[in-house]
Amino acid sequence: MNITRENIDALNAVVTVEIAKEDYNDKVTKILTDYRKTANIPGFRKGHVPMGLVKKQYGKAVLVDEVNKLLQEGLNKYLVEEKLDILGNPLPRMQEEFNWDAENFSFEFELGLAPEFNVDLKKNAVTQYDIVADEKMIDGQVENIRKQYGKLISQDEVTEESEVTGVFTNEEKEIENSVTFGLDKIKGKRNVNKFVGAKVGDTLTLKTKGLFNDDHDVMNFLKVSHDDAHDLDIEVSFKINEANTRELAELNQELFDKLFGEGNVNTLEEVKQKIKEDAEKQFVQQSDQRLLNDVTEDLIENTKFDLPDGFLKKWIQSAGEKELSVEEAEEEYTKSEKGLRYQLIQDRLVKDNEVKVEFEDLKEFARQMIRAQMAQFGQMNPSDQELDDIAARILSNQDEVRRLTDQLLSQKLLELFKEKANLKKKEVTYENFVKEVYGDSH
Question: How far is CA 6 from CA 3, 17, 124, in A?
Fold first, then answer.
């Protein structure tokens, strides 16, 4: 067998695999000899079928099978030995005059080669947000706690401080949904005034456009889809079944013990400090996720390299279960190009910085995840044996291993970005973080 490569350019090559009769003949002859011993052909005793008849009946199929096996083994070995970094899989070139009755065969394969490039983590500054819980937010949380643990006092008439329970209906859109909400959810004085002074048992007629401060409340309160909720402009009825006001809970030791465990917190200042610490722990996750996204986007945008586009579109056409048209492959390539670029960038970062996900890392990562999940259900001190048993079960599932490996790799890349990327730190309140990152409409 002889394998040669012609480089068309930096990103495309053609590999030719030549298979001569001596490469496959012995193997084909042995298989046909074994067939002859066991062949069951009418008119001949078992084991006495003429070899010519066996060759006529089975020869071509055995030859094709053996040549294809040799071809795959030879090509795979060649790609490994030559250390060729290819994209997709080798694509066989159609040969119009190919003849299986010949003794020697030549096969051609197109290759798409991965580009050579460097990743510069220092090139552009990326903002790293340090999100802090400000007084306004902490006071709001204290207020929410006092409401949550306060006493409900029934009312006959709705006031601005009321929580109302009732049913939204609209026949045409098949809306019939029971909800409870405070009037602080309602947008604009004119809408609030429709509620204030209404009695329990009254039915209000309301326009949905501009009814709530947050479009997502339209989705939740009327039970309509996300797409329908935005710019929904219909008339709904709202029958008031209850109106209640809340007497705020007193900030005393009994409430502190209920919230944080007996004797752990003794003053309002300590409550605020605890709220601040807990909130900022949550904020770190959001800040980290944003940093990961922003550095990723920056690298995709600013790491320039060419791809073997033509080859990849051709490969996408034939890679799936169903052959795609040229237009479908073009569309699929457009959708997947960004992901492919980041995959190549990520592989380069992993290689250049020796980022590794070892099995022991994966096991410890699984244990931490299990411990966090158990804590949510009140199991604060699971034994090492329990953690190991559950981790072993999870890691015996290949899909879970892949999912956890991806998560752990993201975590390791985040650590790499924090250490080596050009980061510009910025302290913001959570409210300003949401405005800056997602815009006011979030």
Answer: 10, 12, 38
